[in-house]
């Protein structure tokens, strides 16, 4: 687990250490804006879960939150390092791009209008 994640998550008692955070971004394929980000904590010694099942879970959660997921695409991130950051998807390269503070503010203003 990265030092950054150690600062965010604390553990108590006899539990396995956090190995990584698997994430699934549900995003608009036209502009890369992320509508839902699903996080799964992967513990040391855990049995891997089928990524298709994790994606199905992400879609179910997004629908319950009111997102219209029919046109969204998914991007799987096997070891997300900064879960507190805001991202968009580079549609061509299929990678996350961290948003600057000014990009975050302009996205918020667009949503409000």
Overview of the structural elements:
- The protein has about 110 residues and is of the alpha+beta class.
- It has one domain.
- Helices cover about 30% and strands about 30% of the residues.
- It contains 3 helices and 5 strands.
- A 3-stranded antiparallel β-sheet has the order 2-1-3, with helices on one face.
- The model has no long low-confidence stretch (mean pLDDT about 85).
Q: Supply the helix-strand structural class.
A: alpha+beta
First-to-last CA distance: 40 Å
Strand content: 25-35%
**Number of separate helices:** 3
Q: How many strands, what sense, and barrel or not for the largest sheet?
A: 3 strands, antiparallel
Order of the strands making up the biggest sheet: 2-1-3
Quaternary structure of the protein: single chain
Average pLDDT confidence is 86
